[in-house]
Amino acid sequence: MSLLLRGLLLVAGAIAALFVARDAPNFGVVEGMVAVLLIAAVVLVVALTRRR
Q: TM spans, by residue (predicted)?
């Protein structure tokens, strides 16, 4: 589980770096928001593929 979360935050950090500088004080907040969006996108894709 820890490895999955680290991977998720790694991807979220890379995406967040496109919008906010890494040394900005709110980078962690933006990274968390991107991580939540990624989780929601994965859940949506899984739900739509199971439906068919």
A: 26-48
User: What is the distance between the alpha carbons of residues 44 and 21, in angstroms, rounded to a whole number?
Assistant: 29
How many angstroms separate the CA atoms of 1 and 3, rounded? 5
Region 15-36 average pLDDT: 91
Contact between 27 and 35 (Cβ < 8 Å): no
Mean pLDDT over residues 21-44, rounded? 91
Residue 26 in contact with residue 37, Cβ under 8 Å? Answer: no
- The structure tokens 């899984």 sit at 46
Contacts of residue 9, defined as CB under 8 A and 6 or more positions apart, other chains included, come to: 31, 35
